[in-house]
Amino acid sequence: MKVLVIGANGKVGKHIVKKLMESSHTPVAMVRDPDQVPQFEELGAETVLGDLEKGFEEAYYGVDAVIFAAGSGPDTGADKTILIDQEGAIKAVDHAKHFGVQRFVMLSSMAADRPEQGPDGLRHYLYAKHRADEYLKSSGLNYTVVRPGMLTNEPGTGKVKLDEHINDFGEIPREDVAETLVYLLSVPRAENKSFDLISGEQQLEDVLAY
Amino acid sequence: MKVLVIGANGKVGKHIVKKLMESSHTPVAMVRDPDQVPQFEELGAETVLGDLEKGFEEAYYGVDAVIFAAGSGPDTGADKTILIDQEGAIKAVDHAKHFGVQRFVMLSSMAADRPEQGPDGLRHYLYAKHRADEYLKSSGLNYTVVRPGMLTNEPGTGKVKLDEHINDFGEIPREDVAETLVYLLSVPRAENKSFDLISGEQQLEDVLAY
Lengths: 210, 210
Description:
Two copies of one chain form a homodimer.
Chain A: E1 2-6, H1 11-21, E2 26-31, H2 38-43, E3 46-49, E4 65-68, H3 78-98, E5 103-107, H4 123-137, E6 143-148, E7 150-152, E8 159-163, E9 171-173, H5 174-184, E10 193-199, E11 202-203
Helix pairs in contact in A: 1-5, 3-4
């Protein structure tokens, strides 16, 4: 499948593009800034310019699947949490419906399914992610929502714990998150489901495989 | 009808309680802070404590209708826009469904139906209001959404322009907004509709009356 990576320049997004290059799929890296293009061209990955706040519909031409991995990050205000994390994702879902995309994999966040339990400073972010996840789930698209625990920059291990609900918070390397998102693109048992994700004991290729 | 006023201590909310006292309905003023109670008791209005961020389900006992007029206001960050204006309203809708409330009138904002056209500093707020309005509209509740123009503190005139879409921005006194919300509670032709609202030429009692 040709897979549009929204948020390709993010810390997880870069891993996703690389993992897709190593897979049977073909990435299209969507970035906002022309300066962000050369790094992906060096990898041999197709790139497309798109801005979640302004417009990115053109990025969808010829696309079979979408991985949404964009986020406004910790350095901007909560206004951007609404405009990027929530509304950018909602627009991405709308475009996917419009273009008949076959698969939509959402990078969410641990506890986005229970934002009321989140810590004070994070609760608004969890609600924004929650709204986007709910919008995707009721969109009619073939979706998978992945809610990873605390992200680290450690090298990937390829060993994870993926379950519809994991009670204990845990960490996971961004590289493993990216590999999981790419893996789940073509796992039938992941379709129309939501999962928590942390580091674990199971080899990724065995996850949901039985 | 017994009408729960959520955000009774706000600038529009105070007018709503007074207008309800003068109407055939009975207000229940929901406020967050015990210090806000005496002003409503002096009016003879029933009050109930409830916090949109913590919990307010108890406020719904015996309630027939809800007017949602709460807002985080301009002095707090956009995190509160998510937690109060968006998520508070969504919880208010959920509770109304749970308690079988017959009417839900939402105080929204001009342009909340087209947030992408809003000015930069306001767009995130308009999206938050939009999400809340959309949630209400798809809730199955008997709703009315009212999107007033720029609010002023001028005395009310009782003369308005209410229409599903008004192209020109305009002002309207908060007192007239409050009177309109109360009026629309019992106007059958306002049910399951959304309206823009500014000052105008029509006497309120003639609006949607023919």
